[in-house]
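Researcher: I'm preparing a figure for a lab meeting and need a structural model of a single chain. I don't have an experimental structure, so a prediction will have to do for now. The sequence is pasted below. Please return the structure as tokens so I can convert it later.
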Amino acid sequence: MTHRPPSFQLAAARRRLTAGLAAGMLAWAAGPGAALAQTAPTATALTGDYIAAVVNQELVTAGEVGRRMEAARANAARQGFRLPPEADLRRQVFDTLIEERVIITAARESGVRVDEAELDRAVQSVAAQNRFTMEQLRERLRADGTDLTRFRATLRDQLLIEKLREREVYPRIRISDEEIEQHLAQQRAAAAADAQLNVAQILVAVPEGAAEPLVSARRAVAEAALARVRAGESFDRVAREISEDGNRERGGEIGLRPASRLPDLFSAAVKDFKVGEVSATPLRSGAGFHILKLLERRGGASGSTVMQTRARHLLLRTSPQLSADVATRRLAEYRVAIESGQRSFEDLARQFSEDGSAAAGGDLGWTTPGAMVPEFETAMNALAVGGISPPVLSRFGVHLIQVLERREVALDLRQMREQARNVLREQKFEQAYIDWAKELRARAYVELRDPPQ
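Model: Understood. Here is the structure written out token by token.
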């Protein structure tokens, strides 16, 4: 398998942003107008504005609080949910802004940095998500009363917050072996309940309250039927001859249904059956004696398998010399050349790709879900085998992606435990972040100021 540069892989933390980030870059996905209203904070008081709080060396102004509240109202109206009362909303927004300033100060003091190339890619990503060129982005920013310089400063702060959270919060989370085992047991139980089973039966009925001699005679009929199946006779044929239930004309087939909708006796009996397996002995219920065969099982994998994808890509990294727009047009031309048969994907990747996989024709090897950045993975998952994507923008640049193969593979116990550990870590992240942010705020200098009289 071709080795991928570590920078191309995605730690789970990279998928998270602070609550304050929802007021920044990611809000663009919900609508440019709302996002621009949110991404225009300033550290200096405006005309008619005043300083509402001093946080370490940072300022929170009343104007920022107002803009965030307006953006929250617009977002609530667009998505159809109710906001808290005005006073509660103002307090929440104010607290969020203070928290952002506390974390930004901590990030700067810790030495976390965002370089210009990384910031450029983030700006281009925001523009691309909103289908803007860079000039259109500048125009929209101006229309909303801000400029690209201030927007970049806000975005830089948001990236600083993200990086510090990733570095500081995840190491605080501890997952015990007992928690992992409990999670796996819950997964198995949930998968069993979700499984769809198609079971066939041969029913030898026993009247309610039957005397023991009759019960013994009916058991003998069931055992003889099972012996015929064991000897190689088709289950379908024996069911049509012997079974006394409503499905005998279909060879006893009950039909595909959730395990939860089968009699408990049936679901418990076949839960560990392989497809095609027949019960070892007749099962007794209030209706009589049952011989069961599992015809089909869907779902119920309990996380023990995963779909892997083998793909290749051609990456053009954006820079001041190569904008996202130019890179996108260039890759679109490469795609036409590949699909028309003029050039091969491998040759173009070897010649032009700016990724470590270039020497292998862009081959990334087999990847599991979560290994790639979300933008890349979403585009890759939407492709059929052999399909080539349109240009895809990620934090690393612009990609052309082709899916080569897919396969479903079983996870070994170590991989299942690691998967469980990651899920539990994500579940614990929010509380760990809250505790960490409280500690930072407790150590910070926060001065709240009254409105000028």
